[in-house]
Amino acid sequence: MSTEARGDGAEQAARTPPEPLRLLAEDADDLSIISAALQDAILRPVDIVWEPTARRVTLKLSRFCWECGGTRVMAAMQFGDVIAVKSRRLPRLPESALELLAMDFAPDEAPGGRVLLMFAGGGDLRIDVECLDAVLTDLSERWPARVAPTHLDQPADPA
């Protein structure tokens, strides 16, 4: 095979859009992977739906695709086996922007525990679960992000 032919294949692979992300979390390690994928996701309070009868919480998010280099995608995160939901210092206006920084799982009486979603500005959402059962899935095509997230603890660019 010629070098030219291999180059065309590599170019085609580079243009092929990545598969939509679909992840399942059943323990703290799984949730840390989802947390990394959702770092800098944006949502609004109205995008958080707690269904006590169904025992689930669903979040609709605009996920920054770190793995795709500067794009965003609509995604949904759902927690099952939810016992209670509490928020602290989150804006109450339905259209307020919330930026998700990280998620953590604190085990309690096995297999249950608390999922903590931490947002920019110091607010958080606590989801008490009977057992950790969470799913993340991308819902839309990707689009170019207007601005890439930055973090104050990142080293300054020497250039």
Overview of this structure, please?
It contains two helices and eleven strands; from the N terminus they run αβαββββββββββ. By secondary structure, it is of the alpha+beta class. The radius of gyration is 18 Å and the shape is globular. The termini are far apart. 22% of the residues are buried. Strand 3 and strand 4 form a beta hairpin. The strands form two sheets. Strands 1, 3, 4, 5, 10 and 11 form a six-stranded antiparallel sheet that branches. Strands 2-7-8-9-6 form a five-stranded antiparallel sheet.
Summary tags:
6-stranded antiparallel beta sheet; 2 helices; 159 residues; alpha+beta; 15% helix
- In DSSP terms (H or I, runs of 4 or more residues), the helix count works out at 2
The tally of beta strands, per DSSP, is: 11
Class derived from helix and strand content: alpha+beta
Radius of gyration: 18 Å
Low-pLDDT windows of residues: 1-14
Mean pLDDT: 86
Helix content: 10-25%
Main pleated-sheet profile: 6 strands, antiparallel
Beta-sheet strand percentage?
35-45%
Tell the overall outline. Answer: globular
Order of secondary-structure elements? HEHEEEEEEEEEE
**Gap from first CA to last CA:** 40 Å
Give a short synopsis of this structure.
This protein is an alpha+beta fold and 159 residues long.
What is the topology?
Elements: H1 3-15, E1 22-25, H2 28-38, E2 41-43, E3 48-51, E4 56-65, E5 71-79, E6 82-88, E7 98-107, E8 113-119, E9 124-129, E10 134-138, E11 143-144
Antiparallel strand pairs: 1-10, 2-7, 3-4, 4-5, 5-10, 5-11, 6-9, 7-8, 8-9
